[in-house]
């Protein structure tokens, strides 16, 4: 069972609509123009169209502030193992799996080009490789006993696929795996992800689980939902701990 000292570190069914932001009616200064720009940016980033990326399906069992208990539906993930620090491992793992979903694969169904539904944009991919829709979150997990030096990163595949229809990875270090339905405890937080912050948030989640008499059944995972250029306070990060 993971403990606070041994640890190296939501899919939301919906989000609130963007709050209207009313800028000055007649901007005449740099400050007013900047406020207008910030209002437009906030509306864009919080609009439903900006957050239409597919996420894993789940049911909420309990919610208490930043904590949740969820029941996730079965899913398929593309995953890889990498070594290094949390930052280096995340970068290396992301490159490997991004290569797979963006075309380093062998299609099982397409003879020429194949059109696969994406949030934005819809892309035609020539040849026998496919471009797979990007999903959220990107999840990182420390290998048990590896003391944070080896990491497993995975992307959840779009729900329209099965193991029989997903294209075959060209990179042998990228594998496909079916994950059964599972109960997961979640702690959501924003801002930058550092190893110290992840350690802190994980400890809070484990304490919350313990107070409910629930026991972790697998190592904690770090889930990130936003690209690296996202504004820190608008980022959505989560610690996920399967439990029994």
Question: Overview of this structure, please?
Answer:
With 244 residues, the protein is α+β, with helices and mostly antiparallel strands. Helices cover 20% and strands 27% of the residues. It is built from three helices and 13 strands; from the N terminus they run H-E-E-E-H-E-E-E-E-E-E-E-E-H-E-E. It has helices at residues 30-46, 86-101, 195-211, and strands at residues 58-64, 67-72, 75-83, 105-106, 114-116, 123-125, 138-142, 150-156, 168-169, 175-179, 182-189, 221-224, 237-242. A nine-stranded antiparallel sheet has the order 1-2-11-13-12-7-8-3-10, with helices on one face. It has a two-stranded antiparallel sheet with strand order 4-9. A hairpin with a 6-residue loop joins strand 5 (114-116) and strand 6 (123-125). The radius of gyration is 20 Å and the shape is globular. The relative contact order is 0.19.
């Amino acid at each position: 069972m993971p403990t606070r000292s041994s640890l190296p570190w939501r899919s939301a069914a919906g989000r609130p609509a963007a709050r209207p932001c009313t800028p000055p009616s007649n901007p005449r200064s740099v400050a007013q123009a900047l406020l207008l720009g910030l209002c437009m940016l906030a509306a864009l980033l919080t609009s439903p169209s900006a957050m239409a990326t597919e996420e894993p399906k789940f049911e909420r069992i309990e919610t208490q502030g930043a904590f949740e208990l969820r029941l996730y539906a079965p899913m398929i993930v593309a995953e890889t193992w990498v070594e290094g620090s949390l930052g280096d491992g995340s970068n290396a793992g992301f490159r490997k799996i991004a290569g797979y979903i963006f075309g380093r694969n062998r299609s099982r169904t397409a003879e020429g080009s194949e059109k696969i539904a994406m949030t934005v944009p819809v892309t035609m991919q020539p040849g026998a490789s496919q471009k797979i829709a990007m999903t959220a979150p990107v999840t990182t997990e420390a290998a048990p006993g590896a003391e944070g030096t080896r990491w497993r990163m995975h992307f959840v595949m779009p729900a329209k696929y099965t193991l029989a229809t997903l294209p075959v990875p060209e990179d042998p270090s990228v594998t496909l795996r079916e994950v059964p339905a599972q109960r997961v405890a979640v702690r959501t937080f924003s801002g930058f992800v550092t190893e110290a912050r992840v350690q802190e948030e994980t400890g809070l989640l484990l304490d919350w689980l313990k107070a409910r008499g629930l026991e972790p059944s697998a190592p904690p995972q770090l889930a990130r939902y936003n690209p690296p250029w996202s504004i820190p306070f608008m980022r959505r990060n989560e610690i996920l701990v399967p439990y029994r």
